[in-house]
Design goal:
The protein is of the alpha/beta class. About 40% of the residues lie in helices and about 15% in strands. Helix 3 (about 60-65) crosses helix 4. The chain starts with 5 loop residues before the first helix and ends in a 5-residue tail after the last helix.
């Protein structure tokens, strides 16, 4: 839950916003073994939340729910109008309606790059049963982009009226201007304002670590004092490779306030991902008015529209060319970046939670 990846951040933010609403009554459903860990990774407000705990682990019960449809939420002692999961999971119910969430179908995409063949197919097998249960039994499926909604309809055969697009949000720390945020010089040794490129999300095959590192090696910007700052959790082979390159810095644990400062003071945000369901760093970067170089994939186009520079995800030379242009000082980015800030301001976690409540309250997701 501390991860900077999209799903844990979505879970934390949406649950916190729902908990703060006076028109919603919430309780937590989780395994007895994992509940202390879950509470520790949510906000302090959740310490007062009522809980329904079950024995064992959620992984085991998730399998039973998806394959057998039992034991139901009601058999575990639950009593609610809706059971809602903000993550990719299914809960069997008898009387309550179930609202599930699918963030992306990366594991089901035949052409998706993968870290390891065994791990990929194990995850794919597990998620297939979850998605099949969602497709068959969920009253409504929330997802974070129209791109993912279209893939759900096509790959899972779900009627489009059962799929509701509710975009991710951006925290308030990313919507304040540099003046309002009282930005001070970065407290990280070796970093100067405008003297580094930024990547957020971790080095993985999905994030196209190969192109990112090849771009950095080919561009040789470190010769002019630039750094490449990598924020997130990294898969071991890419971490080892990046560690051998000059000018690369790793940051793992960082607050929203600190990350927003990195965005605002970086020369550019570079995200060459092969596949995304949404792309929270894109909307955060737009909120911080940072120039962005993005892979030309549907989810990024949907979020950033025309407020970024795009390159084919495997085209290293194109990424190098765009970054060279941004660093040359010949590119006027202020108007483009300020327009992006206006777009980002529309994406808030409160708005995301409000749309969820609106949908569930309507009792008719196809309306």
């Amino acid at each position: 839950m501390r991860s900077r990846s999209g799903v844990p951040r979505h879970v934390r933010a949406v649950l916190s916003c729902l908990w703060a609403r006076s028109d919603v009554t919430l309780s937590l459903l989780g395994s007895r073994r994992e509940m202390p860990w879950l509470r520790a990774h949510l906000t302090d407000d959740w310490l007062a939340a009522p809980t329904l705990e079950f024995p064992g682990t959620s992984r085991v019960l998730q399998g039973a729910w998806s394959v057998l449809g039992a034991p139901s939420y009601e058999q575990l002692g639950g009593d609610a109008d809706w059971v809602y999961s903000p993550a990719d999971a299914f809960v069997a119910t008898r009387g309550a309606r179930f609202a599930g969430t699918i963030h992306d179908l990366y594991k089901l995409e035949a052409a998706a790059p993968r870290e390891s063949r065994l791990g990929h197919y194990a995850a794919r097998l597990r998620l297939r049963s979850v998605y099949a249960a969602l497709a068959k039994r969920a009253t409504v499926i929330f997802t974070v982009s129209q791109f993912t909604a279209d893939r759900i309809v096509r790959l899972l055969g779900v009627d489009a009226c059962r799929v509701q697009v509710i975009h991710n949000g951006v925290g308030s720390a990313f919507l304040r201007g540099a003046e309002d945020a009282n930005d001070s010089p970065l407290k990280i040794a070796g970093l100067e304002t405008g003297g580094f490129l930024l990547h957020v999300g971790g080095l993985t095959a999905k994030k196209n670590a190969h192109t990112l590192l090849a771009m950095w090696e080919r561009g040789e910007w470190w010769r002019n004092g630039y750094k490449l700052v990598l924020v997130g959790n990294h898969h071991a082979p890419y971490y080892r490779l990046a560690s051998t390159l000059p000018g690369v810095m790793f940051i793992r644990d960082i607050s929203d306030t600190q990350l927003a400062r990195l965005y605002r003071q970086s020369a550019a945000l570079v995200l060459p991902s092969w596949y995304e369901g949404f792309g929270i760093p894109v909307i955060e970067g737009m909120g911080c008015a940072v120039p962005m170089v993005l892979s030309d994939i549907p989810a990024f186009r949907e979020v950033a529209v025309d407020y970024a520079h795009f390159a084919p995800p495997g085209d290293t030379e194109k990424f190098v060319s765009i970054v060279d242009y941004l660093l040359s000082g010949r590119c006027e980015t202020s108007e483009l970046s300020q327009a992006g800030r206006g777009i980002a301001a529309r994406y808030t976690w409160d708005a995301c939670a409000a749309r969820i409540v609106e949908c569930l309250s309507s009792m008719s997701p196809c309306r």
